Here is the input.
Amino acid sequence: MSEFNTSDFMNPMVTQTWLNGRHEVRCVKVIAETHDVITFTFGMSEPVLFFFKPGQFVTLELEIDGERLMRSYTISSSPSIPYSFSITVKRVAGGTVSNWLHDNLKHGDQIAVHGPVGQFNCMDFPAEKVLLLSGGVGITPVMSMARWWFNTDSEVDIVFAHSARTPKDIIYARELEYMSSRIDNFQMHLICEKTEVGQTWGGYRGYLNHHMLSLIAPDFMTREVFCCGPDPYMKAIKSMLQDAGYDMDRYHEESFGATPLKDVALAEKHADAAEVENLLSKEMVQISFTDTSNTVSVALGTNLNEAAKEAGINVPKACGIGICGACRVKVVSGDFEMAQNGGISEEEIAQGYVLSCCTNVTGDIEIDY
Here is the structure.
């Protein structure tokens, strides 16, 4: 049985850091943003710092109708909330992957992701004043940037101009209003192409043009521009800025095209390696739960909280990093390794208790739960 390690207790955070590669993640939230846009949030069973540059993307590896598909989605969350990451997906007519995600992906499901990667990000192009321009679901990378600056109390002067089809199609509307109401260096402007019967709208109407941009950001010529949206939107923005004499070296855009071939190739290479690894025999161990008489076989090193889920047992988990103690269970016998962050006392450890969120099984084990 594992013994209490004082060095682990003194370490304020026992975590891993996200690195580019293939990772198995679990869907922890499904949030309806609009009538046809959903945000999916992912995390891992053990503490992992999902650090990335705001604006970067991940590639999802999915199997749909027996075919392995790779699709890239921009990370819409901010690395300032580091123990999870989110993607925001719009349902598209005929969209194989986006529609599958909307119809099938639910809380608790596990999928493989590759990344993070991408040259479009705000960290590689620091500026004191920025102009964020987005159309439709192209809001996701610039929203990640805005969240990053907002959450880190940045002094970057931000003008955020988002174009949507109608008021009901505005993604993150309430959050944008909240952000703009809390800090002086965040100016938010919403533009709707049209309004439908019964809708009220007091913002800009039509399409973003030079006159409208001059009202929204009179000093746009001095700002770093980050732009994302459908191709026609970005072509119009780029042409407008060029006609105005803007320094295009300070213009950065992200397209909604297919996943870059080099990223697909790398993702497939990682996926093939994972398939080979899964074919190799893995040492299995047994976990039994005395209160329910449930027993489950899992691979050596499996996280105890995840193993409980496989056995149909829901052990409460709050922080997920060994601080709060909500996931405490008692080990009757067996082998394990625990790396906790102060959420359990020495007396409890001496009595056989562990924090399931940060405990890995290293042999057959019996749990009193």
